[in-house]
Amino acid sequence: MSEQPPAPGPGFGPPPPQYAPHQAPAPPSYAPAPPSYAPAQPGYGPVPPQPAAPAGPEFLAVDKRNAVVVDASGVVFEMYGLSVEFRWPEIRSVHYQASPNGKALMVGVIHQDGRFYECVVEAKPRARLQEWFPQLAWVLGHYRPAG
């Protein structure tokens, strides 16, 4: 007397037909050929890279969490991984000062519609704050001359 091995339990073997992956039908043999591209003509083709706008002065203040960038495009605040960009045409004015405890740079942007945005960047060592003030004043004066 020979014993037959037990049938495999659920989860073993090939999937039932209703769970088999769907096979896409073959395209019909009468399908039109893909369109060919016209030969390259003089004056057409890849656009050569445009020269970058002349680079102007930049200001950058960074700490562990925040950053302030002032450049030819405007002002950018980076705070806790989020970035807010203000283009020069959107900016009514830019203000800056030391924090009350003298350990950070506070930069504020007033938008054309009156909204106020602020970013605070810690200065470590504290002497760095005194380096940032003339740099920031010079860069802001370059892009937003008083007058």
The percentage of residues in β strands lies in 25-35%
CATH level 1 name of the domain at 59-143: Mainly Beta
How does the major sheet shape up? 4 strands, antiparallel
Strand order of the largest sheet: 1-2-3-4
| Tally of DSSP helical segments | 1
Helix residue percentage: 10-25%
Radius of gyration: 32 Å
Number of strands: 7
At the third CATH level, what is the topology name of the domain at 59-143? PH-domain like
Distance between the termini: 109 Å
Uncertain spans, ≥5 residues at pLDDT below 50? none
What would the principal axes of the Cα set say about the shape? Answer: elongated
Mean pLDDT: 81
What structural class do you assign from the helix and strand content?
Answer: mainly beta
CATH architectural grouping of the domain at 59-143: Roll
Instruction: Output the helix-strand order.
Output: EEEEEEEH
Please describe the structure with a list of short key phrases separated by commas or semicolons.
PH-domain like; 12% helix; elongated; mainly beta; 147 residues; four-stranded antiparallel β-sheet
Question: How would you characterize this protein structure?
Answer:
The structure is a single chain. This protein has 147 residues and is mainly β. It has a domain at 59-143: PH-domain like, CATH 2.30.29. Helices cover 12% and strands 31% of the residues. It is built from 1 helix and 7 strands. The protein has one helix at 127-143; strands at residues 59-62, 66-71, 74-79, 82-87, 91-98, 104-111, 116-122. The strands form 2 sheets. A 4-stranded antiparallel sheet has the order 1-2-3-4. The longest helix has 17 residues, at 127-143. It is elongated, with a radius of gyration of 32 Å.
